[in-house]
Structures are given as structure tokens and as C-alpha cells.
């Protein structure tokens, strides 16, 4: 029972921390502010997270949990079919839902810690390896793709995705964003040797 209460309380604190980071920026959030946001004494928060670094590590676990949801429609479809729908896969991997699942600004604020904190660097590495592992599991479910080196394929796909998201986050003009997005989608379709192209649609 105590374990369940602890899990629920930690989740509540991390979610409160995340909401404050979205609103005020990670660098401006303190344990005192989290306490005020949640109506908790700071001492209770420090009982679970004794410093901000541990809160960031908890936030990275939260990122992973949220990002895994991007795969859910694909995995559900496999319950009825044995082959991969490449368009569905690409649409999910390049969906703006990533940003709805977890704010990009908070993601990159946390990411900046990898350059000065080995534990946080390892946590981010674990996050990325898990996302690749889940993608490999999806690729392995397809009878044709399972004959390929799906480890390498998942790695190549994520190189495109991660580079694309970094670059696309700087583009504000909708038509230019869509044009670049279609290019990246087609790159992934080519990697899985599915020749269906994604046509640019004028908005």
C-alpha cells in the first residue's frame, strides 16, 4: 500500500514539475514553486526528490512513457493484420502528436543537461534506445521486413526522425514546413523500401 502511495505521489510531483517547466521554463522552476503549484509543502516534495537533478531524471522517465504512446495505433493494428502499413508508420513517426505528448521546449531543456551530467546523459541514452527497440519490435512483426537487419533499419529511421525534428522546429512558415516534412517522410519510406511517395498538399 505504501509503495502504491509513493508511486502516485511521485507521478503527481513530476507532472506538476512538467507543467511548471512548460509555463515558466525549466531553469526558472524551484522546489518551492512546485510545492505552491501542487499545494504541498516543499519538505514533502524533497522527501521524494531531494534536489532538482532527481526531478529532471524523473521527467526523463515521464518523457519515455509519453513518447511510447506514439506507437500504440500501429501495435493495435498488428492485432488484426500481419503486415506493416508503411504510411501509418511514417505518419505516426512524424506526427505533431510528439509535441502534444511532451513539450519540445521541456525536452530540449532537459537534454542540455547531458553535457554536464553523466547520469542524465545515460538516462537520455536509455530513452532513445527504448524508442528504437520498440520500433524494431514493430518492424520485426512484418514478415518481409523481419528478414532484414531491423536493428540497423530502426537506427537509420531514427537518425532521419531526430534530425528532422531538430530542423523542423526552426521553420514557422506552414508550406515550407510541409514541404520539408514530406521530404523526410519519403526518406523513411525509401529506407523501408516502400516506394509510395508522400505528395505535398497545398494548404
UniProtKB/TrEMBL annotation:
Gene3D superfamilies: Tetracycline Repressor, domain 2
InterPro entries: Homeodomain-like_sf, HTH_TetR, IcaR_C
Alphabetized UniProt keyword annotations: DNA-binding
Start-end of DNA-binding region: 30-49
Record keyword DNA-binding present: yes
Highest taxon listed in the record's lineage: Bacteria
Keyword DNA-binding included in the entry's annotation: yes
PROSITE patterns: HTH_TETR_2
Pfam families with a match to the protein in the record: TetR_C_37 (PF18665), TetR_N (PF00440)
GO molecular function term, any single one: DNA binding
Domain HTH tetR-type: 7-67
Subunit text: Homodimer.
Function (record text): Represses transcription of the icaADBC operon necessary for biofilm production.
Protein name: Biofilm operon icaADBC HTH-type negative transcriptional regulator IcaR
Organism: Cyclobacterium marinum (strain ATCC 25205 / DSM 745 / LMG 13164 / NCIMB 1802) (Flectobacillus marinus)
Amino acid at each position: 500500500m505504501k509503495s502504491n502511495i509513493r508511486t502516485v505521489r511521485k507521478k503527481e510531483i513530476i507532472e506538476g514539475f512538467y507543467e511548471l517547466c512548460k509555463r515558466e521554463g525549466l531553469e526558472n522552476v524551484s522546489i518551492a514553486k512546485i510545492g505552491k503549484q501542487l499545494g504541498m509543502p516543499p519538505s514533502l516534495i524533497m522527501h521524494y526528490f531531494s534536489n532538482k537533478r532527481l526531478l529532471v531524471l524523473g521527467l526523463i522517465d515521464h518523457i519515455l512513457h509519453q513518447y511510447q504512446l506514439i506507437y500504440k495505433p500501429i501495435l493495435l493494428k498488428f492485432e488484426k493484420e500481419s503486415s506493416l502499413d508503411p504510411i501509418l508508420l511514417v505518419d505516426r513517426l512524424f506526427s505533431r502528436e510528439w509535441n502534444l505528448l511532451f513539450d519540445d521546449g521541456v525536452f530540449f531543456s532537459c537534454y542540455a543537461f547531458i553535457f554536464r551530467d553523466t547520469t542524465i546523459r545515460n538516462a537520455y541514452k536509455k530513452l532513445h534506445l527504448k524508442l528504437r527497440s520498440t520500433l524494431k519490435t514493430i518492424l520485426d512483426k512484418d514478415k518481409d521486413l523481419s528478414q532484414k537487419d531491423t536493428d540497423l533499419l530502426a537506427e537509420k529511421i531514427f537518425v532521419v526522425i531526430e534530425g528532422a525534428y531538430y530542423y523542423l522546429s526552426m521553420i514557422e512558415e506552414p508550406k515550407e514546413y510541409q514541404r520539408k516534412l514530406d521530404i523526410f517522410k519519403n526518406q523513411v519510406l525509401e529506407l523501408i523500401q516502400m516506394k509510395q511517395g508522400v505528395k505535398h498538399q497545398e494548404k
